[in-house]
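job 3f2a | input accepted
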Amino acid sequence: MPRIRKPPDTVAAVDLGSNSFHLIVVRIIDSRIHVVDRLKEMVRFAAGLDADNNLAPDACRRALDCLHRFGERVRQMPRDSVRIVGTNTLRRAKNAKDFLLEARAALGHPIEIISGIEEARLIYLGVAHSVADTPGRRLVVDIGGGSTELIIGERFEPLYMESLYMGCIGMTQAYFPDGRLNEEAWRRATIAARLELRPVAHLYRHVGWETSIGASGTLLAVAKAAREMGLCQDGITLEAVQGIRKAMFKAGEIDKLSLPGLAKDRAPVLPGGVAVLQAIMEGLKISHMTVSDGALREGLVYDLLGRIRHEDVRARTIEGIAKRFQIDIEHTKRVETTALSLFEQVAEAWQLDDKHADNLAWAARLHEIGLAIAHSQYHRHGGYLIENADMHGFSREEQQILAALVRGHRRRFSKLIFNQIPEESRDAIMRLAILLRLAVLLHRNRAPRDDMVVQSITARDSSLEVSFPQGTLDQHPLTKADLESERNYLKAANFDLTFH
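job 3f2a | predicted structure (500 res):
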């Protein structure tokens, strides 16, 4: 049953991209969004990654200075009205954890690290809401600082999504390291981009599309330069890209690059971005593409609105996974109902909220996913599947939480299972796992109707007291034995379970 809450009048989204950081604040009027504030700063975050994929101190400082400024705008906004995501650079950075602690303090809100496929989904959502709603398939191309997303979709639904490991910063650093712009460097850059594109090019051409749309900084910058240079008046053509390439060769060096309509802070990363764009247009046989102002940040806004209106894509993802892996849905529904009933009785004592209830419900629905691999150790298989799957709508942290809950729902209960969960959330997630364990235990006989009813449950910091109606445990000796085993499992983790 959806939990009713008053929707916010104003929401915000922050995109911590590999090249630029973006903030958008919108008001919701009659179910439509009206932009009231936009902030953008060129941070070149990806340029701060060293050979070991650690963020350099100066890159962290640039980023944090920007986020302190963004924080002045969003820090006082309610938590449920703000979404902040990190993309390719934070996916790669080995020391991201240290940076994220400071970044969260600067912004006053948690930060989600999203997968490349989730980034692609959100980009498509932002573009789809920013262009005319026309029939037919569309291809969306977004060349970021560290990755490039390619999406084929129809109306508001993405159908095929890919995130390729190439972006304007990485390609510029790799193929134009000395700043020289010449044919040989360009040839190597475009060949590398074509090789990265090659595994998906045939499928995309086979599926096909009616219109091509470019999104985000590189594509908008190229379109503006092409227009100012008289190469193309509407969007981007392959001939315009080739004209810009010739102009870059004429400049000879990145430091001397100055094209009409090109912002100075875009010039240092333009060569890599244009090389990727040329490779994509040639590899996918695109002669012309339009451009869209909407991208990841707008997609975040619309995705957040969906959650507020109880149209959460994550619920559809869970449902789809359950069907795909042929989970016993009727049984997991019974487990979910019992788990949420226990949750309601302990939520106040354990300071659990609606988001915790969602996590518990989703974990209950997927707790048997590992049976698709093997019955032995299926909780381990399930945890692995969830942690490594492409789950639309879920951040990396959210998947780790679900994986830990499924991994910890039976057998030995170890705190090590929860080590990847942020420390501030760890105790709450461990408590959810205990509730899930009890719910699974109480439905072990898998009967459609069960008279094993909990009369009451009382929670304290590190203990649970479960009360059953008089005579129930004597009538269910196997369940009583399970509860005794569970008491021993939890005792090993310094948690006390009592029942009577």
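job 3f2a | The radius of gyration is 26 Å.
job 3f2a | closed
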